[in-house]
Write a structure and sequence with these properties.
With 211 residues, this protein is of the alpha/beta class. It has a single domain (27-205), classed as Vaccinia Virus protein VP39 (Rossmann fold). The chain contains 7 helices and 9 strands. The chain has helices spanning 14-23, 30-43, 57-69, 85-89, 106-113, 128-138, 156-168; strands spanning 47-51, 73-78, 95-99, 117-122, 142-151, 173-180, 187-188, 194-195, 200-205. It has a 7-stranded mixed sheet, with helices on both faces. The radius of gyration is 17 Å and the shape is globular. The model has no long low-confidence stretch (mean pLDDT 96). Bound molecules: S-adenosylmethionine.
Length: 211
């Protein structure tokens, strides 16, 4: 390995990390788990925001990447978090839980973080109106150049809402497109309708408003 040291590929803990990602109680497909870890580890954000935490699975993966970077914090926002105590005990050195709904609670989140967010994971309210509300709220708490990662972008309400926001804010939002093309098989909702879920889509907040 000696000659490749300049590429910084030495990481004896990575095998355990991969197992931790596979075991995390996340509602994420395999490529999404790997991408989420890699994005956070690669981007090295200082202040992360997670909208929609549920059992703490995506939180576990984000915190693992921040731990491996050795810096960064995460504020989680969820009106009904169900993170088991033993899972939270492994995250609380990096993450703060805010019980409440986005976007109303986002001003509190930015106060806790101590500055604007440079990485935002949006996986909360999956209705069209809810996603538009989240994006508009996030635009008030995101730093210039922030990365906005959306889960379930294959689900039609989320996809259409992201498209609407990109069209509505062309000077603020840059569309980096789909990062994970795999979707679930069709899942039947209680009302009998079927939809595919999963998918990562990335937007970027412009560093300066685009003309
Ligand atoms: C699909 S789960 C999140 C899964 C989690 N990100 C993971 O992959 O491990 C959606 C969560 O969003 C939360 N939620 C729903 N509406 C929300 C809102 N307006 N703001 C924040 N969280 C919301 C729900 O309570 C639920 O826990």
């Amino acid at each position: 390995m000696g000659t490749l040291d300049y590429l910084k590929v030495t990481d004896p803990g990575l095998t355990d990390r991969v197992q931790q990602m596979l075991d995390a109680p996340a509602e994420l497909l395999l490529p999404e788990r790997l991408l989420m870890y890699s994005l956070v580890r690669g981007l090295r954000p200082q202040r992360c925001l997670e909208i929609g935490t549920h059992f703490g699975g995506s939180t576990t993966i984000t915190c693992a990447a921040l731990d491996d970077v050795g810096a960064g914090t995460l504020v989680c926002v969820d009106p009904n978090p169900l993170v088991p105590a033993d899972v939270w005990a492994r995250l609380s050195h990096r993450a703060t839980m805010l019980r409440g709904a986005s976007p109303d609670i986002l001003a509190d989140a930015v106060g806790i973080a101590g500055g604007l967010f440079d990485f935002v994971f949006i996986d909360g309210d999956h209705t069209h109106a809810g996603v538009v509300r989240d994006v508009e709220g996030v635009l008030t708490v995101a730093a210039a150049g922030a990365h906005l990662l959306f889960h379930d972008s294959h689900y039609w309400e989320v996809r259409d809402a992201i498209d609407e926001c990109v069209a509505k804010y062309p000077r603020r939002l840059l569309d980096a497109g789909t990062l994970s093309a795999l979707s679930t098989d069709p899942i039947t909702a209680p009302d009998g309708s079927q939809a595919r879920w999963g998918g990562f889509r990335l937007l970027r907040v412009a560093t300066t408003p685009v003309n």
